[in-house]
Design a protein that fits this description.
Radius of gyration: 24 Å
Mean pLDDT: 96
Number of domains: 2
Distance between the termini: 71 Å
Number of strands: 20
Low-confidence stretches: none
Structural class: alpha+beta
Strand order of the largest sheet: 3-2-1-4-5-6
Largest sheet: 6 strands, antiparallel
Order of helices and strands: HEEEHHEEEHEHHEEEHEEEHEEEHEEEE
Number of helices: 9
Helix content: 10-25%
């Protein structure tokens, strides 16, 4: 029996006594390849198939799952979900969403050719990626975490409100950390990475060389005096800060009073350069889907528009509590768990300047390439403190490497002092579906010497 027919059949049987029933089925494959010193260290391929059933009875919710789709196991799973619902605490806002039409458009989130790519070609890809870093310069000592991952999934969802749908998706990721060593023995490290739903869209040489180039640029680095200055944030740095902001813009964080933006709807919370969007229908977005984990159509939600806070992200539960509509942001990480509220493709709207043009406009500042979250980025308090490495900017030119410093600000100040946004929007797979362009931020404390 095909998955969509199975899901509908389970819904019909399990909802016979009036319960709300949702069935989620996921089938998928995954390939992981790790390379070190030009040799394959790890190669694994796996397939999975599983089903989860959610039952809601008068606001009481139960959930059960299985990887065994035999008739007996399926029946036992939905019966268990119903039994668990009977003993759960009732919540008047816990209900399945009403069905809505799902737009029929090609989101370009599935690469049908991926299943035909031989594993030898995938091994060749990640070996070329590492070679691009190692051969870039003799000062590149080695690489770590040089990894290729691809995942393909077939998703099916059906519920007793009348929704049923299915889609295919894929994602391909390549990354490494390049290690450079200078003449004095000092070592630096930097990431090169990229992700796409389409295998052919990734450039192994560009990824490898990115890591090597960044690592080399930070050799012979020294601290700078403590000061307030302008910083320019590389994508991997901006993405970590933007991820914390995405957590502060979910409705559940507001309903639990755990967001630094609480109570400021309709107010100016950022500079007029800041427009933040969550777009679950972004073409080739690594977090795109036609509908969310509850069957609600995805869409583009403008959260901050030219600095003004306009909205937060909702799933059906938070929307019911607030008396509004879901934004289609119920996320699922697989069949073993309930849907939960989260961002999809979350990004700052790109501007019109290149990275080089942004740097050229800085008289005195710090181009931040790597950070470690020593103090962290807190979406509740808005505090932000990270140890940082990068390159000093003088008169619009990259000059001396810098390390041994911290950058400190608050997320409020971060948003209010963004003074330039690049045109180079990139998806950063290290933090979900976050995407970010190069950012210039003024009035940031750089803590160094003195």
């Amino acid at each position: 029996m095909d998955p969509i027919t199975l899901a509908k059949q389970i819904v019909e049987e399990a909802a016979a006594d009036g319960a709300e029933i949702e069935v989620f089925i996921q089938e998928g494959t995954e390939t992981t390849i790790g390379v070190s010193n030009r040799e394959v260290e790890k190669l694994s391929q796996s397939g999975s198939r599983g089903m989860g059933v959610r039952a809601i009875v008068d606001g009481q919710q139960g959930y059960a799952y299985t990887a065994d789709l035999s008739d007996e196991s399926v029946r036992r799973t939905w019966q268990t979900a119903l039994e668990l619902a009977q003993v759960a605490t009732a919540d008047e806002f816990r209900r399945l969403p009403d069905p809505q039409p799902v737009p029929d458009e090609d989101l370009q989130i599935h690469d049908p050719a991926l299943s035909e790519v031989p594993v030898t070609a995938k091994v060749d890809f990640i070996k070329r990626l590492e070679a691009a870093a190692l051969d870039y310069d003799e000062r590149i000592l080695t690489t770590v975490m040089c990894t290729y991952i691809d995942q393909s999934a077939h998703i099916v969802l059906a519920n007793s409100k009348g929704f049923s749908g299915a889609y295919d998706s894929s994602v391909v990721v390549g990354y490494l950390m390049a290690i450079a060593r200078g003449e004095d023995g000092e070592m630096t490290q930097a990431f090169g990475l990229d992700a796409s739903p389409i295998f052919s869209a990734l450039d192994a040489q560009a990824i490898g060389q990115e890591g090597a180039r960044k690592a080399l640029s930070m050799l012979n680095a020294k601290p700078v005096p403590t000061q307030k200055t302008t910083v320019v944030l590389d994508h991997v740095v901006g993405a970590q800060i933007l991820y914390a902001i995405s957590q502060a813009l979910t409705a559940d964080s507001w309903q639990r009073s755990r967001s630094f933006l609480m109570g400021r709807m309709g107010q100016q919370v950022g500079s007029d350069m800041v427009s933040i969007v969550d777009n679950g229908r972004l073409a080739r977005g690594i977090a795109s889907a036609p509908f969310d984990g509850e069957g609600v159509p995805t869409g583009a939600t403008r959260l901050i528009d030219e600095g003004v806070l306009q909205g937060v992200l909702h799933d059906s539960y938070t929307a019911a509590k607030d008396g509004t509509a879901s934004t289609g942001n119920a996320q699922r990480s697989g069949h073993t768990g309930l849907p939960s509220l989260g961002a999809s493709n979350f990004y700052i709207q790109p501007g019109y300047l290149s990275r080089d043009e942004i740097i050229a406009g800085v008289q005195d500042g710090f181009y931040v390439l790597e950070v470690m979250q020593t103090g962290g980025v807190d979406p509740v308090t808005g505090d932000c403190s990270m140890s940082a490495s990068g390159i000093w900017i003088k008169d619009g030119q990259l000059t001396d490497p810098v390390n041994g410093v911290t950058i400190a600000t608050t997320l409020d100040d971060f948003l209010m002092h963004i003074s330039a946004v690049g045109s180079d929007l990139r998806q950063m797979p290290i933090v979900g579906g976050i995407a970010v362009p190069t950012l210039r931020v003024d009035n940031v404390t750089v803590g160094g010497e003195g």
